[in-house]
Structure formats: structure tokens, C-alpha cells
């Protein structure tokens, strides 16, 4: 199941002009505040009616402001005066998870979950409440009221309520923004479970680079209402030309697997034929892991260095160099097929004589990879 979106909307001086596809998995709308992320997600939900829109889920039309008489609308959609199609929000079968959980305070957790199930279409395959509560780890909370829950627990209940409505897609508008880091770390694994277990698209809004690298299967990078690039997470995050949050926030996501846990607290990962040492990571040998490496933590050497404390010295090839407006530059490196970004100065680029195709070494301290950046 996939989501296809084409939107054009003008709001004062701001113009949104965005087209992208969100396949099965978790697609992150990634960009700074004011880039159009929430406008897009609200248009998909039907809470905002854009000037021009075509939105389809698995080939079924939710909105089409054009006049294509061959478009197949969802049952219950109405045609507008312009002969377009517009399905009202309550008929779009969307599970929406907001920044705040928006649970009913007078209902127990069980009551809030049942409220979501009440909206499931009669013809839909009903999700099993026991399975949902087990997946989200909220079975022991069923008798509590929202006031007695932590922020992370409330968000997990909100996710459960959305899932029990038997949606055909999940929308999440910065669902972790109101949580502290401890609560974020608590709830992130549950979004990973949703990403891996569900066969429907999840559209997720974020401006946190590490969060994007941890969760996304697909990234839609946005800035000023435009799509800078859309595609698989590793490709988009590893593109030095795509830095919606600025070069200081640039970083790449690489796919690895655990090959050893060492007694000194380090975990050894395989990235192709190369090895990467990071702080102790959860999981057994053979477990696949994602690692987010920030560009500012990577150094470049033209010769293999000796006598340094950094444990990770990776042979690499320079693929591309992006010179910034200021003193900095982003260098895209290929390390055995894995893309790594390095943020260096323009002077370093000149002094090292860096150019595309050059053989170099990427240097990364093991302790510079935060535990929160190592995920399944």
C-alpha cells in the first residue's frame, strides 16, 4: 500500500508546491519550521483544503481538485463544483497521532482505545486490541486515566487508539516534540515496531536529524515549501546538496550488523568488509542496526594515521564536495558502498587537495556515536 501526494497551496507569502510518493514503511517529512510539513500532513488528513491537490492511497483517490473523470474516488467522496473529488476527513480512514496525545480525560485507557475501535469501518478487518496493547506495552495501563500516565505512555495509548480505527495510513505530526529525551527514548522503539510490522504507509513529521535517521525508510526533504529530494533514507540523508536543517545538522545513516560485543563496553559492527566500533549496542550477534553518523564528527586524512586515539579509520573515496557560503564544506565519502558525510573547512579541502575520486581515510571516534544514534 502506498500514498501519492501532489499539492499546491498559497497562504499569504508562503507557497507550497510539493509532489512525492510514500511507499509502505515510514516516510518522514523532514525540514525546518515553516517548510510546509504540517500543511502537507493536514492536507492529507483533509483538515486543510489546498488550492490544488491530488492525493491517492493504493490507487484510490481521496482528493483531486482537477477534472479527471477517470479518477476512482473512495466511497463517500463528493465531487466539488469544479468537478473535483474531495473525501471528508472522517471518511479517509486515517489514524492521526498529534504532538499532544489528545486523550479523553474522563475515559480510562481502555475507553480511549475502544473509542478508536468504534470508528473502524464495518467492512474493515478489525485490529485485535490484545495484540495492539501487547505491541505497545500498554496492557497494564488499561484501567488508568490519562492524568495518571507519563507523556510517553499517553503517546503510546494515542498510537493504539489510531491503530484500532483500522486506518489505511498513519499520520504523525511531530509526536515526540512535547517529550523530554527520556520519554523520546521510551517511545521511539514503538514507532520502529510500527514501521516494521504494518503494511500501510506512515507519514511522520520531524525536524530532528537523529530521529529521521532512526525511523525513516523514506525521506522527503523540504525547505520553503519545496521538495529538495525524496527517496530512500540513506540516499537522501547522505546527499551533501540536501541539508534542510543546515550543514551543522548534516549526517548520514548507514546499515550495519552486529558481529561482536567486547568486554570493554564496545560493540563491533560490520559495514560490508569494513568494521565500526561503537558504544555497547543492544541486540545479538547478527542483528542488523542503523547508525547515524554526524558529519561534524568525521575527520579526513589523505594517509592512514598512526598514534591516534580514534578507533575507526575507514578507507573511503571522495564522491562529492559541497562548498558552503561560509568557511565550511561537506564532503561525501564512499566507504565500501556506505555513504558518510564529513564536515570540514574550505581551508582543509584546499590544504588536502581533496577532489572527487580521491582515496582518503574517514576517521571517527567510537565515543562520538551516541547510543541514541544506534538503532534496529
From TrEMBL:
The keyword Transport applies. Residues 307-373 form the Mop domain. The keyword Nucleotide-binding applies. Residues 2-249 form the ABC transporter domain. PROSITE patterns: ABC_TRANSPORTER_1, ABC_TRANSPORTER_2, MOP. GO terms for molecular function: ABC-type transporter activity; ATP binding; ATP hydrolysis activity; molybdate ion transmembrane transporter activity. Keywords: ATP-binding, Cell inner membrane, Cell membrane, Membrane, Molybdenum, Nucleotide-binding, Translocase, Transport. GO terms for cellular component: membrane. Pfam families: ABC_tran, TOBE. It comes from the Bacteria. This is Molybdenum ABC transporter ATP-binding protein. The gene is modC.
